[in-house]
Amino acid sequence: MSSLKGKVALVTGGGRDIGRAVCVKLAKEGAKVVINYFDSEEHGAETLRQIKAIGGEGITVFADVTKQSDIDNLVAKSVEAFGNKIDILVNVAGGLFARKTIEEMDEAFFDLLMDVNFKSVFLVTKAVKPLMGKGGSIINFASQASRDGGGPGAAIYAASKGAVTTYTRALAKEFGPQGIRVNAICPGMIATKFHDDFTKDQVRVNVAAGTPLRREGEASEVADLVAYLASDESSFLTGNNVDINGGLAFS
Any residues with CB less than 8 A from the CB of 113 and at least 6 apart, and which? Predict the structure, then answer.
């Protein structure tokens, strides 16, 4: 893989699971990593510890990526630490929060899901774009749910991730003439806290059994895909929503 040495990467939701794996992988490939965390300072610190353990460089920055003021501070801290450029943006931050039918949902829950999963992508990308030049790469996180409508009680989650897939295509066309690529990743069943919290054990067993590779994915495997999309080896890939689900669903 092409080295990411000398590049600066900003990763939202970098405190755990896939976000942490992405941060560590990008650092391993040579990038300087801005680790955004929200729910736990300890989680962010652990990601940084793992980066330093492999000789990498990074900083942690708290930010609620649904709030403009927090995002402005996040970008300012990146500039303060690593200079006036961001080469790689990975919008991992997102969440399901609860499984609810439409009867159980209220407007506040709808707004929460749309803000965390989609508005955050809009706000962070807009803030980072002025610092990104030719050769830049933006990687958004959608979901298999954006392909198939999601599992029970995940309708608005699926819709918010569907917005990410469409926005990714639109930005690819808008940013392409400036030499900036925009792609998204659509993970399937990946062994993370997300599914620990929101998917029943037997459902996970059944899904894994129905997957051609007969297992769940690992966060490190998703991180490998992110690193590829961030690198020059994917220099003619843009506007793609890349499935990583062990063959469970095709598009």
Answer: 95, 96, 97, 156, 157, 160
pLDDT at 207: 83
Among candidate residues 23, 235, 9, 229, the one with its CA nearest the CA of residue 132: 9
pLDDT at 136: 98
- The tokens of 1 are what? 């893989």
The correct CATH number of 8-189+218-244 out of 3.40.50.970, 3.40.190.10, 3.90.550.10, 3.40.50.720 is 3.40.50.720
* Residue 75, helix vs strand vs coil: helix
Ramachandran bin of 246, using left for φ above 0, alpha for ψ from -120 to 50, beta for the remaining angles: left
- Rounded to the nearest 5 degrees, what angle is found at the Cα of 86, between the Cα atoms of 83 and 89? 150
Of the candidates 86, 121, 95, the one whose C-alpha atom is nearest the C-alpha of residue 16 is 95
Per the CB < 8 A criterion, the answer to whether 26 and 51 are in contact is no
| Candidate list 37, 157, 167, 228, residue with the active-site label | 157
The confidence score (pLDDT) of residue 2 equals 64
pLDDT grade for 1, boundaries at 50, 70 and 90: low
Question: Any idea where the domains of the chain sit in the sequence?
Answer: 8-189+218-244
pLDDT value at position 192? 77
Compute the average pLDDT of residues 186-201.
Answer: 81
CA dist 219 and 210 (Å) reads 20
Is the Cα torsion angle 148, 152, 157, 159 positive or negative in sign?
positive
Is 167 a residue of the active site?
no
Q: Burial, 220: exposed, middle or buried (Cβ in 10 Å; 0-12, 13-18, 19+)?
A: middle
The helix or strand, by DSSP H or E, that contains position 48, with its residue range, turns out to be: helix 41-53
